[in-house]
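Reopening this one. Same input as before:
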Amino acid sequence: MMRRFLLAALFASAASAALAGNGLVEPTLKMTPQRDGKVRVAMTLDACMGKTDHRILDTLVRERIPATIFVTARWLKHNGEALAVLLAHPDLFEIENHGENHVPAVDRPVSIYGIAAAGSEAAVEQEVEGGRQAIVAATGLQPQWFRGATAKYTNSSMATINRLGMRVAGYSVNGDGGSLLGAATTAKHIAAAKDGDVIISHINQPTHEAGEGVVKGLLALKARGVIFARLDDPSFAPPGN
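Same output, byte for byte:
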């Protein structure tokens, strides 16, 4: 049977990953385009820490837009109300692992965007397992995907993540630039998504302009008739499963 999705973990190009010289990689994740003329994208939102952007969450619920939410243990501790909304809509939301403390899952002592990486294999394991355990404790659900802080890894840290039973979730469209872009630019990035794209944005920065842009971009995609997918779609299974 034809798979609807194609998982591709690739080295980022020199242009898109200036950190490649340090041995860091930024995986890409895309879907296989179909021949039915329909446009499919996957919306993924990181809940790193802090609060919840209800502009985004309320829109997803109201407009019935499915999304994959990557949560950290830190976010779960302080956002019980938002978690209840996610759990109340299992048809819309998939909850996945963003780590324990929002530490880059890199097994070398480097700094990425000013954030100190885990620094060792053991520390990567703690970040992944700590996030997984927090999700299980809060939801009873076992996450299948992991996205580390900054979405940068080494090949060896990705192997560690896989060994722990997690699949590394890349993306193909950076919607909000780490929630630092303005509303108009964010909306433009998301609205321009093409068939097969996996979008990354953030749902934990309610005071940032980017959240407004995420909403506008999502509504623009819906108006185009885009079909929204989640990473737990059965056709995202690895070949042979």
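So the earlier flakiness isn't reproducible anymore. For the record, The two ends are 11 Å apart (CA to CA).
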